[in-house]
Amino acid sequence: MAANVAPEPATAVVEKVELGRADPARIAADLEAIARIGGGEGGVTRPGYSALERQAHDLVGGWLADLGLTVSRDAAGNTIAELAAPGSKPALGTGSHLDSVPGGGRFDGVVGVVGAVEAVRLLREADVALGRPLRVVCFAAEEGARFGQACLGSRAVVGIGASDIDEICDEAGTTRAQAMREVGLDPTDLDRARWDPRDWAAFLELHVEQGTVLESQGVRVGVVDLVSGSTRLEIELVGRASHSGGTPMVGRSDALSAAAEIVMAAEHVTTDPRHRGTRATIGRLHVRPGNITTIPGYVACTLDVRDVDSDRQRLTVVEILRRAAEACARRGVSMRVRLIGDTSPAVLPIWVRRVVTRAARDIGVEYRVVTSGASHDSQSVNTAVPAGIIFVPSRAGLSHVAEEWTDAADVAVGTDVLARSLVELDGELAAIERIR
Ligand code: HGY
Ligand code: MN
Ligand code: MN
Questions:
Q1: Alpha helices for 174-280 (secondary structure H)
Q2: Which residue's CA is the nearest one to ligand 1's atom 6?
Q3: 392 with 357: CB under 8 angstroms?
Q4: With contact defined as beta carbons under 8 Å apart, do 64 and 121 qualify?
Q5: Could you list which residues have their CB under 5 Å from ion ligand 3?
C-alpha cells in the first residue's frame, strides 16, 4: 500500500453473503412506470405535495407491500416501508424522493427509490436477512422548485424548521400547509413525523450525479464526501414604470436594468478565482408590467448560491447583495431581499463512506469519491442519522431538464453497490453493537 495512504481502520469481518446482481430490465420498467406519472413531452412535472406525487408514492408503496414490507405514510407525507427483523436494533434506511422540478427529468430522486426497491428484491431473492429492520423511504417535497425551500419531508423527520408552513407558498399563492391539506395531510401534525435517531443506524441514498465527473472519467459509481449547501433568496426591485418613448435614458429607474446588473454580478463574483467552486444562479425572473412600450417598474427574481464551503457560500451572497445594492442606489431602484432557504454544506461521515467504498471494491466496481453540487435528502437526514450517498452518472451532466438521462445498466451497478453496502453496514454495525 502506498506510504501516504492511511491504512484502513480495523473493520468488522462481515460474513460474506452472495447477492444476485440488480436487473437492468426490472429497473428500467420501474423507472418507466414512475415516469408515466406526470411525465410528458416537456419532461416530468410531479410537484411536491401534489396528487401526482402521492400517486407515485402509492405506486412504490404497492411494490414494497408486495415484497412483504409494512408501508406507512407519515405526517409530512413521507412514505416509509419497513422490512422487519427480529430484535430491536436500530434500522438501516435507504431511499430518496419522487417529486420533480417542473419539466424535470425521470431520474432525479427516482433512481434512489427504484434502487432501494431493487435492493430489497436482491436481499429477498438471496434470502439474506439483515440483523435489523430495513426501511425504504420516499421523502416528500425534496425539490425546492414549488415552495422555494428544499427537502421539506426529510427536514421534517429531523425536526428542521417548519414554522413557516403557512407562509411559504408556490407561484399560485398556495401555501405549503394548504397543499398538504389538499393531499390529505394535516400540516399541524408535522411534529409526529419526527424520527427518534436512536431508532436509525444509518441511511444510504442512491442518486444521479447531476454533474459530469463520473461520465468524463468513465467511472460508473461515485461515493459522495461533501454535499453543497444552498442559500436561496427572492430579490424584489422597484423602479419607475414609464413610457419607453417619452422617457429619456438619463434619469430612468429601470428595474430590469438593475436586475441585469445583479445577474452579471452573480456571474462576476462566482467566476472570480477567490470564489472558485461557488455557483450562483438567477433561475426565475418576473418583469412587470411587461409591456413592450413601458419601462419595467418591477422585477422579482430568485438567487440560488451553492458551495461545499459554508463561509464561501455566505460570503458570496453578501458580495452579490453588496453589488446589487450599489447598482440599485445608482439607478434609483429600491431593493427588498427575502431569505427563502439557507442550508449548510454537509460532510458525510467517513465511516459510512468507507463501508460503501469497501462494498464497491468487494463486487469489483470502480468508484470515485466526488462532491455533490446538488442538495439531497441525505443532507437533512445526516443531521440526525449517519448518511451516505452513492452516485450514478448523468449523461452530459444534465439534470432538472427533460433531457436528463442515466442508463438502467448504470442504475443497476449503483444498486449493486447500494445492496452490498447495506449488508456490509449491517455487519459493521453488529460488530460495533457487540462492543458497546
Ligand atoms: O436543487 C437541488 O439541489 C436538488 O435537486 N433538490
Ligand atoms: Mn434529487
Ligand atoms: Mn433535484
A1: 176-182, 213-217, 255-270
A2: 143
A3: no
A4: no
A5: 108
How far from 41 is each of 103, 120, 232, 346, 394, CA to CA, in Å? 9, 32, 29, 35, 20
- In testing the pocket of ligand 1, which one of 400, 401, 404 has its CB within 8 Å of the most ligand atoms? 400
Query: What atom of ligand 1 comes closest to residue 150's alpha carbon?
Result: 6
Measured in Å, residue 415 CA sits from the centre of ligand 3 at: 19
Residue 15 has pLDDT above 80, yes or no: no
What residues have their beta carbon closer than 5 A to ion ligand 2? 108-109
Q: What's the rounded Cα separation, in Å, for the pair 286 and 300?
A: 5
For residue 375 and ligand 1, the question of a CB distance below 6 A is answered with yes
Beta strands in 228-382 (DSSP E): 229-238, 279-281, 285-288, 298-307, 334-343, 346-347, 367-372
Q: What is the pLDDT of residue 112?
A: 98
Report, as an integer, the average pLDDT of 324-351.
97
Q: Write phi, then psi, for 386 (nearest 5 degrees).
A: -55, 130
User: Is the minimum distance from the CB of 304 to ligand 1 under 6 angstroms?
Assistant: no
Confidence of residue 277 (pLDDT cuts 50, 70, 90): confident
* Confidence (pLDDT) at 163: 78
For 32-52, write each residue's pLDDT tens digit.
999 999 999 999 999 999 999
Residue 162: which pLDDT band, with cuts at 50, 70 and 90? Answer: confident
Q: Is the pLDDT of residue 323 over 80?
A: yes
- The answer to whether the predicted template modeling score (pTM) of the entire model surpasses 0.85 is yes
Q: C-alpha grid cell for residue 401?
A: 431538464
Residue 4 predicted with pLDDT over 80: no
Nearest CA to ligand 1 atom 5: 374
Distance of alpha carbon 169 from alpha carbon 160, whole angstroms? 18
Residue ranges of domains in the chain, CATH in brackets: 10-227+345-435 (3.40.630.10), 230-343 (3.30.70.360)
Which amino acid residue places its CA nearest to atom 3 of ligand 1?
Answer: 374
Average pLDDT value for residue range 105-118:
98
- The answer to whether 191 and 371 are in contact (CB under 8 A) is no
Mutation to probe ligand 1, out of 210, 306, 398 (largest number of atoms < 8 A from CB): 210
